[in-house]
């Protein structure tokens, strides 16, 4: 998790961001990453297409890439650049021209570039990640020793279903009904505990 505010321009960008943000080896995600205008102008001229420009003044704009993601895996750094588009947009010749400018820009910089549409995003994991967002903050006062014990229990796993485990937390620690589930959801959202529960 990057632990900073991000500004995303579409549901597809948001869903794609959630997947990258969940990965342990992602260290940063930069959205609407600006490209060097001199370079994109040169590339546009080389391939014979119009550089994107402001409508009224026809001044060339600074192009951007939707997501630039930095990874660190076993001490090895890697950066990828991704254009995130609706699949229908890829049928528009002008969109393809701009994407080709982006592709060549990142190729020149030695960065892997790709295009992601809604077709590449897994529906169920995205739904789960969107749901977990609501539990990233725990908006109730729970004694620290109880939180530590629940986190340890989550790590160990259980033969109980997730729902049964949450009910057990309420009974074991004298918490109001539903508190155990909210705490467990919070820990899962923050990736504090991984378990072998069958989610229910």
UniProtKB/TrEMBL annotation:
Segments passing through the bilayer: none
Coiled coil: none
Protein's UniProt name: TnsA endonuclease N-terminal domain-containing protein
Keyword Nuclease among record annotations: yes
Residue intervals of the TnsA endonuclease N-terminal domain: 24-118
Single GO term (MF): endonuclease activity
Pfam families membership: Tn7_TnsA-like_N (PF08722)
Superkingdom, natural source: Bacteria
Keywords per UniProt: Endonuclease, Hydrolase, Nuclease
């Amino acid at each position: 998790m990057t632990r900073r505010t991000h500004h995303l321009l579409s549901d597809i960008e948001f869903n794609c961001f959630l997947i990258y943000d969940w990965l342990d080896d992602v260290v940063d995600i930069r959205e609407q990453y600006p490209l060097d205008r001199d370079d994109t102008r040169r590339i546009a001229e080389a391939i014979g297409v119009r550089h994107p420009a402001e409508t009224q003044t026809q001044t060339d704009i600074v192009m951007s890439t939707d997501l630039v993601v930095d990874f660190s895996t076993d001490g090895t750094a890697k950066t990828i650049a991704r254009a995130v588009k609706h699949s229908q947009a890829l049928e528009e010749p002008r969109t393809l021209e701009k994407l080709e400018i982006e592709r060549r820009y990142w190729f020149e910089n030695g960065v892997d570039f790709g295009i992601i549409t809604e077709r590449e995003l897994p529906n169920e994991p995205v739904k789960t990640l969107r749901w977990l967002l609501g539990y990233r903050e725990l908006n109730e006062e729970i004694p620290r020793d109880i939180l530590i014990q629940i986190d340890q229990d989550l790590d160990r796993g259980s033969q109980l279903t997730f729902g049964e485990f949450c009910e057990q937390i309420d009974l074991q620690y004298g918490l109001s009904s539903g508190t155990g589930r909210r705490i467990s959801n919070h820990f899962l959202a923050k990736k504090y505990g991984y378990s072998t529960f069958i989610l229910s």
